[in-house]
Amino acid sequence: MIFEVLSVVVGLVILIFAGDALVKGAVNLALRLGLPALVVSLTVVAFGTSAPELLVSVQAILDGAPGLALGNVVGSNTANVLLVLGIPALIATMHTSGHDTRRDYLYMLGASVLFIGLCFTGILVWWHGLILLAALAAVLAATFLASRGEEVEVEGAEPGLPGWKLSVFLILGLVGLPLGANLLVDGATAIARAFGVTETVIGLTLVAIGTSLPELATTVMAAIRRHADVALGNVIGSNLFNLLGIIGVAVLVGPIPVERSFLVLDLWIMLGATLLLVPFVFLGRDITRLWGIGLVALYGSYLFWVLT
User: The dihedral of CA 178, 210, 280, 132: what is its sign?
Assistant: First the structure.
């Protein structure tokens, strides 16, 4: 069991650093090739920051554990709302009212409803993936049209980055991501078998929290510096991409059967967490310490329910 836990931890560490390296390398390469900053932000950065979750989901399907892939996405979306917003709010009030996230939130809500509807077909297959990817393309196109002319700061952009460093970042990312995903999935499935639980439960809990750690760490540090106001927008964007992009690509690799537990509980918990954002998005409420306590308590209750 020590080896399996170590495999998960090492896999997560590799995924985090490899994902960061891939974003830096791909972003700077795209900018050197002359792509507009807005396009790079909407596509290269979005795909790059979600690369760990994507590789984990694809690897899980290749290893015959599709439940882990679905659990990873559904669990990550729930954790993003309840943990990634809840824990930093315990440190400092998040003044989200200064950022207009209404349009992106409606996209995410629509994506959640579409995703849940497709899950009720019983099994996600390649044509579901095409629908999800088409929806993602439509969202990216609409966002691009609405944002033209705005100043965009691209994450990971370093104009003076030497060519050799750019190459090293790309190589580390492209080699590290599949390696980390393989270690994480192998360790997680072994732990699931050892404890007599399904890969789905491990995906909803251990893997979901693990792949959400980079966002959580970033938001916590921002809260300590009193700069966590943009966290809400980041969570909305991450959740939108998880549903449409990661599952969209993953089911092109192989089908994902939807267990009954998802249809009865987990998908509705994810949707409920999404609806909890309404006061912050539309009513201008700040995420105070009291809200943080409530969000973290809800996530703890959900974990207890899933694990027992």
Answer: positive
Nearest to 171 by CA among 27, 41, 18: 18
227-265 pLDDT tens trace: 666 778 878 888 999 999 999 999 999 999 999 999 999
Q: Which helix (H) or strand (E) holds 123?
A: strand 123-124
Q: List Cα–Cα distances, 77 to 211, 246, 251, in angstroms.
A: 10, 12, 18
Phi–psi pair at 93, nearest 5 degrees: -60, 135
- Beta strand 123-124 with 256-257 is antiparallel
Per DSSP, helices labelled H in 228-266 are 231-241, 247-253, 260-261
Q: Which residues contact 117 (CB under 8 A, 6 or more apart)?
A: none
**pTM greater than 0.70:** yes
Domain boundaries in the chain?
2-307
Helix (H) or strand (E) holding 124: strand 123-124
Considering the domain delimited by 2-307, tell me its CATH architecture: Up-down Bundle (1.20)
